[in-house]
User: What shape does this take?
Amino acid sequence: MTARTKMLLGGIISVALSAGSLAYIFFRLPGETFPLTSRLIRWSSILAALSLLILAWLCDALRLKFLARALNKGLPLATGLRAILAGNFVTLVTPFLFGGAPAVAYILTQADLTWTEASAVVAAGGWVAQGALAALSLLALLTLRLLRLSLPLSALFLAGIATHILVLATAGFLVLRPELAELVLRFVPGRLRPQAQRALRRFQAHMEQLFTASPRWLFLSFGCAAFYFLLFFAIAPALLSPRAPTLSWPALAAFQDAAYLAAAFAPTPGGSGASEFGILYIFRRVLPLPLVKEYVLWWRLLTFYLNLLAGGIALSLSTWRLFTRPESGGHT
Assistant: This one.
């Protein structure tokens, strides 16, 4: 099965699970047959949420741009944005919200980064982004406790954050320990092993430069990642706050953070199913069910289906360039 076929199959499964979950929420739970008929969420709120999503995409592109600058490489913001959108598409059609890294690395090579430089930017960028998410998740839990709002299964949520941090620490340890990578290279066929060793040395040199030589770019990248998730989770209060005046913006964003992190551990492509039912499970305890149903729909339309559409276009444009750009002799 080719990679393209796997992505197509993952996309079909992801959309089917999401659509099936939404259909259950719309038609099996009490309330209006279709959430949009109640018009609880205003169009002005939807436009505000869309603006926040676009700003979040731009912040995420800046995260890559700053890391590329740490390697003394210029990355056009448009290329970074295309890489982010294409990576989002692949991520949403693969399990555990993971899989977009190769797509991002490939598009970065179109901005004259070598494959090892692009791989280092993606690896460091992923570590920075997930670190920012873990920090904000802890902040979300603290916020809810300070506001005296209960989070369902809060102990499980805290365990998820701890697991998240442990995975990050383990990944960082493995990447920065060259002797462990050398053990993996023993499984590479003999004729390919020297080339793999050279690529590994270059990758490790780039990683060292990213984490030690230019701390300000790493700090700016972390700030962009944190701002990305703040904007992303702010979609929740943008949509809900006009109809939920008793809940503050921080509280609504914190609840959405918890629902997002829960879906990230789901084995389904794009977190489909887990995302819809996670939001339903968390928000229906603090908001009326009809409002929650409409919110689930708009959240998934903006953050899932729109991401699939924009990411699919970005990935298609990048694949087209793969077949049309002249040969450059290749480099690593």
User: Anything to note?
Assistant: Confidence is low (pLDDT under 50) at residues 322-332. Residues 289-324 form the longest helix (36 residues).
